[in-house]
Design a protein that fits this description.
Chain A: GO terms for molecular function: flavin adenine dinucleotide binding. Chain A: FAD binds at residues 12-17. Chain A: This is tRNA uridine 5-carboxymethylaminomethyl modification enzyme MnmG. The complex is a heterodimer of chains A (617) and B (428). Chain A is an alpha+beta fold and 617 residues long. Helix content of chain A is 36%, strand content 18%. Chain A folds into four domains: 6-199 and 343-453, FAD/NAD(P)-binding domain (3-Layer(bba) Sandwich), CATH 3.50.50; 203-339, Elongation Factor Tu (Ef-tu), domain 3, CATH 2.40.30.260; 458-554, Arc Repressor Mutant, subunit A, CATH 1.10.10.1800; 561-614, DNA polymerase, domain 1 (Orthogonal Bundle). Chain A is built from 19 helices and 24 strands. Chain A has a six-stranded antiparallel sheet with strand order 16-17-18-19-15-20. A five-stranded parallel sheet of chain A has the order 7-3-2-11-22, covered by helices on one side. In chain A, a hairpin with a 2-residue loop joins strand 8 and strand 9. Chain B has 428 residues and is of the alpha/beta class. Chain B has helices spanning 27-35, 86-97, 109-116, 122-133, 137-147, 150-174, 184-214, 228-236, 278-293, 306-309, 341-357, 365-387, 390-408, 413-423; strands at 4-8, 15-23, 45-50, 57-66, 77-84, 102-104, 216-222, 254-260, 263-269, 296-301, 319-322. Chain B has a six-stranded mixed sheet. The longest helix of chain B is centred in the middle third of the chain and has 31 residues, at 184-214. The chains are: A alpha+beta (617), B alpha/beta (428). The interface between A and B is large, with 51 and 39 residues.
Chain lengths: 617, 428
């Protein structure tokens, strides 16, 4: 039997797995990634886009910690769009359509150049477990690999079943087998498994689309990159097509509804509300006469089109009719049918904030296996799991992210505290510190932390520190340059004539002040435009952030109150049974986390606090 | 599991009936061991209570069982209605304390469990406390309204409106690339108008409601020796104030609580207002401050020229009346003979009743402050929406929600997303 040893094993080569392996390696761990095929690393199995609202924020955070996703997205970007461009900077989300082949190539290239990382093509079929510690895995060929930590990122592969109409195919994704033995091992470990579903639309042959009959959505004239390190565009920019369903489409779906796997009763898993199938949309919103469809090119040299908006699990013949009922697609050929996929996920309330399983030391879970959806969410978890797996293997500090510092923290805390009832996707509205957790300042929030954790390389560190110095200097001069309201009004700024001296920073944050007029004043006139833009954003939110700082302080205080792992909620008087069950289920690590459990009351929190205090005496 | 608690629910002392309540998982088991019989849910049964150790008969009692969650505390509850004898209650409490896992409840613990099990919200608990403390019929009506969830329902409506508005605003942020109606922000702004008006109206009435809960202060104001203390004694039907013919006898502020046609009123007698020296001067100054702060002033005068020298302004609803009416034939009031007293009380209660009619559901300072915070945040939020700063508006709306939740419950982001998902078709 072959036997090899690493610091960290990552099982699964999706977005979570690649980011996990890279992060572990960057942190100094000798890391191996096990996947079926090297050439499918960096695959985008669903829509060919990276970023968006909430998601773009996560990509920037991954990038700030020197992860791969942002750089790969920029290397393959064929349509940049900044979502919410007309709204405040806190809720703007950078997004790009990516060329799938170029994205894969970019990820694979980053992996090849990571010295501490290697890839084994194979199938991990079992975990090695000794004394509740996970020590490695067994491959399908019987060989064993040992390590100080294992990151499991199996996506939809755990008992994955694809549904196309009445047909069911056990598979992890189109063309790849499901991992059944691993799922059985997970059963034996006693983790709580649930079932979710998601879906994907049919892929169309762009050469058979009548592009003259569909609308066009163009790329932004001024692209906003996903990575802080990107300085110029890599690819030609293309447009997406826009068309829509119509009365014929809806009638067709209505007539064939019982043939859909979703409505035929074959599927038990819960699907995401924000990414419904076209069947779902037509049944739930019967009053809508039409639903928009974006026709997204999958690559510059690839005729495949991803029709965003018609995810379906109808039988193939109905899918053909469905597609051809749509304007511009009358003669369209389907390259691959759409499908729904059901898969097992692990209740993330079994996890710690490091994404290590609570009961199995050395076993980390990341990505869709934790009940999330989306490349960005998966990659973000992969990064955190990878950092911590390295920490476990090399005995380094754990990397815990908090709600007031990052979307990564919001996501992981949501998952481990509340669990999921549908595939979890990031929204900016999930972040209570949204005005601080911006895409534009992800580097300021996280790069210093990444440097401390040892996962940020020299070039990013140097670039960041140069920017930080310039920004600090600009901020200092904006704060120290003050004027009276009379002086300000002479310069054309309409402020209250209240006699209070204001700094340029204060004035910059005023709703009815043109920032460009402030930029020309004093020392600021010598500052580079990107730094000035950053300063203006900070000034806009400064009054709110001051208010939120109090909330953040309270949060940190409650985060500092650790709840012992052995906390017995049975012994705790005066909790409702429902609340007690929830506490037992998520076993919050801190008082703050307990406070975020749904239905938690201040009285119950008080009980917990009192109990902890009395235990200490 | 939580432990099981018990406590007497009636005041100790001789009475026809006394009641002991048990709440918690062991409630039914304990009652069954006391009675030797099954306790049928929600049915009154006459049973002998026995000490299970000695077999001693304690008393014959009506036993009533309420299975959770449909009980006051939300847990299994049993009521033991015994005879109102101190000896019976003492023996019963001692027996209950002998059960393993049973303990005497801490003060307010039954209500706290009701709160924790969502049988009552915080405002309702306040209402319950008010009801127990109510002294007058108007206070009772107010407390019952609060206990019945009057404020909670109102706050629930506001909260619902703010939540819907927030959902609209969040939808324009998180789903801006989806097919949403164009006018969501306008709809959001319009939807806020109703709650904003209602909150302003409720806050206008809040001061009167708070007074009703805490009592109205009515100050007797006049020159020294105007007959204020005699009048106070008449109102109190006992000698509260030391009365003498010597001006300046009253230096401290004396209070008498009255139930005035259902309104709780505290009548304040204070030093006569004149220019004085030394310790009396301090008393006079304190009296002026207190008189100005009172809800209503009754000026006892010999003629209207007195008003000018008292140093306390006569405000809109204040009452001016001639004192010592036993000494003259003009209309007025006399503490000594009682002449005109009923008439004066009638006028006071008319003024105060009118104020209470305008009073709203908000009757605690805590409730008022939270509503004020919510209102201010909503007004700022509307301003942000007008400027198109949706992310700042969302921030203000969240703050408003948090303030409203402070009154009754909690919100979380899932609640916002639920509203979004049930309202719009999302997902391309």
């Amino acid at each position: 039997m072959k036997h090899r040893n690493f610091d960290v094993i990552v099982i699964g080569g999706g977005h979570a797995g690649t980011e996990a392996a890279l992060a572990a390696a960057r942190r100094g761990a000798d890391t191996v990634l096990i996947t079926h095929r090297f050439d499918r690393l960096g695959e985008m199995s669903c829509n060919p886009a990276i970023g968006g609202l909430g998601k773009g924020h996560i990509v920037r955070e991954i990038d700030a910690l020197d992860g791969a996703m942002g750089r790969a997205a920029d290397a393959s970007a064929i349509q940049y769009r900044l979502l919410n461009r007309s709204k405040g900077p806190a809720v703007q989300g950078p997004r790009t359509q990516s060329d799938r082949a170029l994205y894969r190539a970019a990820i694979q290239n980053i992996i090849k150049t990571e010295p501490r990382m290697s890839v084994i093509e194979g199938e991990a079929v079992d975990l090695l477990v000794k004394n509740r510690i996970v020590t490695g895995c067994t491959l399908a060929d019987g060989s064993q690999i040992t390590a100080g930590a294992v990151v499991l990122t199996t996506g939809t592969f755990l008992r994955g079943v694809i549904h196309i109409g009445q047909r069911t195919i056990p598979a992890g994704r189109q063309g790849d087998p499901a991992s059944v033995r691993l799922a059985e091992r997970m059963d034996e470990l006693g983790v709580t498994l649930g079932r979710l579903k998601t879906g994907t639309p049919p892929r169309l042959d762009g050469r058979t689309i009548d592009w003259t009959r569909v609308g066009q959505q163009e790329a932004d004239a001024a692209p906003v990159f996903l990575s802080f390190l990107t300085e110029e565009m890599s690819c030609r920019q293309v447009s997406c097509g826009i068309t829509a369903t119509n009365a014929r489409t809806h009638a067709l779906i209505d007539r064939n509804l019982t043939k859909s796997a979703l409505f035929g009763g074959q599927i038990n898993g819960v699907g995401p509300r924000y990414c419904p199938s076209i069947e779902d949309k037509i049944v739930r919103f019967a009053e809508k006469a039409s639903h928009q469809i974006f026709l997204e090119p999958e690559g510059l040299d690839d005729p495949t089109i991803y029709p965003n908006g018609i995810s379906t699990s109808m039988p193939e013949d109905v899918q053909v009719e469905l597609v051809q009922s749509i304007e511009g697609l009358e003669r369209c050929r389907i390259l691959r049918p759409g499908y729904a996929i059901e898969y097992d996920y692990v209740d993330p309330r079994d996890l710690r904030p490091t994404l290590e399983t609570r009961d199995w030391t050395g076993l980390f879970l990341a990505g869709q296996i934790n009940g999330t959806t989306g490349y960005e969410e998966a990659a973000g978890q992969g990064l955190v799991a990878g950092l911590n797996a390295a920490g476990r293997a090399l005995d380094l500090d754990s990397a815990v992210f908090t709600r007031d510092e990052s979307y990564l923290g919001v996501m992981i805390d949501d998952l481990i505290t509340r669990g999921v009832s549908e595939p979890y996707r990031m929204f900016t509205s999930r972040a209570e510190f949204r005005l601080h957790l911006r895409a534009d300042n992800a580097d300021q929030r996280l790069t210093p932390k990444g440097v401390e954790l040892g996962c940020v390389g020299v070039s990013r560190r140097t670039a960041y520190e140069a920017k930080a110095i310039l920004l600090d200097r600009a901020r200092a001069s904006a704060v120290s340059h003050t004027m009276t309201p009379t002086e300000a009004s002479r310069l054309g700024f309409g402020l209250n004539l209240d006699g209070v001296r204001r700094s340029l920073f204060d004035i910059l944050g005023h709703a009815n002040v043109d920032p460009d007029a402030v930029f020309g004043l004093g020392e600021l006139s010598k500052v580079a435009p990107p730094i000035l833009r950053q300063l203006a954003i900070e000034a806009r939110y400064a009054p709110y952030l001051a208010r939120q700082a109090m909330d953040a302080e309270r949060l940190r205080r409650d985060e500092a109150v650790r709840i012992p792992e052995t906390m017995g909620y049975d012994a705790l008087g005066g909790l409702s049974n429902e609340l007690r069950a929830k506490l037992e289920r998520s076993r919050p690590a801190t008082l703050a986390q307990a406070g975020r459990i749904e239905g938690m009351t201040p009285v119950a929190l008080n009980q917990i606090l009192l109990h902890i205090r009395s235990g200490r005496q | 599991m939580s432990d099981t608690i018990f406590a007497p629910a009636t005041v100790p002392g001789k009475s026809a009936v006394a009641m002991v309540r048990i709440s918690g998982p062991m409630a039914f088991e304990v009652a069954e061991r006391l009675t030797g019989a099954i306790v049928a849910p929600r049915r009154a049964s006459l049973r002998w209570l026995r000490d299970p150790q000695s077999g001693d008969r304690l008393d014959q009692a009506i036993v009533l069982g309420f299975p959770g969650p449909g009980s006051f505390t939300g847990e299994d509850c049993v009521e033991l209605q015994t005879h109102g004898s101190g000896a019976v209650i003492r023996a019963l409490l001692a027996t209950l304390a002998g059960f393993e896992g049973l303990r005497l409840a801490a003060p307010g613990e039954f209500s706290r469990r009701a709160l924790m099990n969502n049988r009552l919200d915080l405002a309702q608990v306040e209402g319950l406390g008010d009801l127990l403390a109510a002294e007058t019929s108007a206070q009772r009506r107010q407390a019952v309204g609060l206990l019945d969830g009057g404020l909670s329902a109102l706050v629930g409506e506001w909260r619902g409106a703010v939540l819907r508005t927030l959902a609209l605003v969040e939808a324009t942020i998180d789903f801006s690339d989806e097919e949403l109606p164009d006018d969501l922000v306008e709809v959001a702004m319009r939807d806020l108008v109703g709650p904003l008006d209602e909150m302003r109206r409720e806050l206008d009435g809040a001061v009167a409601s708070e007074r009703l809960r805490e009592g109205f202060d009515v100050a007797l104001v006049g020159l020294p020796n105007a007959g204020k203390s005699t009048l106070l004694n008449r109102l109190a039907r006992r000698d509260v104030a030391l009365v003498s013919d010597q001006a300046g006898t009253t230096r401290d502020i004396l209070e008498v609580r009255l139930d005035l046609r259902g309104l709780p009123v505290t009548v304040l007698d204070m030093a006569g207002l004149r220019d004085a020296e030394g310790i009396e001067a301090a008393g006079v100054e304190r009296a002026r401050l207190r008189a100005r702060a009172a809800d209503l002033r009754v000026f006892l005068v010999e003629d209207d020229s007195d008003l000018a020298v008292l140093g306390v302004a006569c405000e809109a609803d204040d009452i001016v009346v001639r004192g010592k009416a036993d000494l003259h034939d003009e209309p007025g009031v006399s503490g000594a003979t009682g002449k005109g007293v009923d008439d004066l009380l009638g006028r006071i209660s008319d003024v105060l009743s009118l104020r209470v009619t305008g009073g709203g559901a908000i009757s605690h300072a805590r409730q008022r402050q939270a509503t004020e915070r919510a209102l201010a945040a909503l007004e700022r939020g509307r301003g942000c929406l007008r400027l198109g700063d949706v992310e700042l508006a969302a921030e203000e709306l969240r703050l408003a929600l948090a303030s409203l939740d402070f009154l009754v419950g909690r919100v979380d982001v899932e609640a916002v997303l639920d509203v979004i998902f049930s309202s719009f078709c999302l997902g391309k």
